[in-house]
Amino acid sequence: xxxxxxxxxxxxxxxxxxxxxxxxxxxxxxxxxxxxxxxxxxxxxxxxxxxxxxxxxxxxxxxxxxxxxxxxxxxxxxxxxxxxxxxxxxxxxxxxxxxxxxxxxxxxxxxxxxxxxxxxxxxxxxxxxxxxxxxxxxxxxxxxxxxxxxxxxxxxxxxxxxxxxxxxxxxxxxxxxxxxxxxxxxxxxxxxxxxxxxxxxxxxxxxxxxxxxxxxxxxxxxxxxxxxxxxxxxxxxxxxxxxxxxxxxxxxxxxxxxxxxxxxxxxxxxxxxxxxxxxxxxxxxxxxxxxxxxxxxxxxxxxxxxxxxxxxxxxxxxxxxxxxxxxxxxxxxxxxxxxxxxxxxxxxxxxxxxxxxxxxxxxxxxxxxxxxxxxxxxxxxxxxxxxxxxxxxxxxxxxxxxxxxxxxxxxxxxxxxxxxxxxx
Length: 424
Known about the structure:
Elements: H1 3-6, E1 10-14, H2 46-51, H3 63-72, E2 75-83, H4 100-103, H5 108-119, E3 122-128, H6 159-179, E4 185-189, H7 196-199, H8 201-211, E5 216-217, E6 244-247, H9 265-277, E7 281-286, H10 296-312, E8 320-321, E9 332-336, E10 342-348, E11 354-362, E12 366-371, E13 380-384, H11 386-390, E14 397-404, E15 414-420
Parallel strand pairs: 1-2, 1-7, 2-3, 3-4, 4-5, 6-7
Antiparallel strand pairs: 8-9, 9-10, 10-15, 11-14, 12-15, 13-14
Helix pairs in contact: 3-5, 3-10, 6-8
């Protein structure tokens, strides 16, 4: 069921809410961030944070522009924050007045889903099972929450209130599952508060299965996840299950203009090719502004992705992991060719290149070696291993050596395509 997920390559994570009006981090600004975790944030009063919702009117919101840029940048799925920990619903909920439709009159989740679905994206909705605004959760106050937030320390409600809250939470989740068409991904969050026994994740998963039988659910539905979600760093070894790495372009998830820790386009693009070469997807985050636009720094990076994808997209879309690191010292992917052969994509992320060496290949099956961008042929030689030579093997294993001229290098990531006869 998850075969389509494994080969998407790039996704767009969108963290957005009324906090962007003030340049606050989504939800976490009211706690002053998390103890021992970057970034540190200036805490604002809980009530001040909640009251800010009344000012949210994103006049420049145009999800069609978001979808067009994201598609050109190579993203093939989107995950939109329908509700974050602060409890503000970015969708049309009938169960609470703390929502975008009550404040602004438009269902931005519906508009995002429609725009991205029309463009061809797989659709995912993010939903936090915690709700720091709901009175039965109970609502966060400056007196009841640690600032900065300490994992495991949070206010608790009496059992009867907790059960009321669970019914409310499941009701809002049901609204998302039934009101926005077929969903490909349900991205839950908030499992760090309360116990699995209190949440009863089996019931949450069963509700999703009943309403959206084909949707994948992430691993934060503890014990019932279809894919793994390492955050902000790549895993040392690929997870055994389908996975994605969710990562910000700077440090914060929402729109925080004071956060100038932007990763370079080269660093982000290299993260993408490394992730795909390990069999995962990169879910790259953007936090729109309070007016509903992507920040210029995010646009700059997505446009850089778009230029690279236009010339190299086949190396990260619908591909499988390529070679082992002992074979090629860098990320690589592969695909089966229609004529029965194999194409390897070698992503060159280190400088200088001059020459690259690929080991452990059936060298007599190498047909062509070229730059993926433009198809320029590269000079190459092969050397069969002596053991196979002495054994007169008809299909010897050995080394491929490729010359890479300096003037041929791509500013972000050069890709060398190696075509071989048969399955490798």
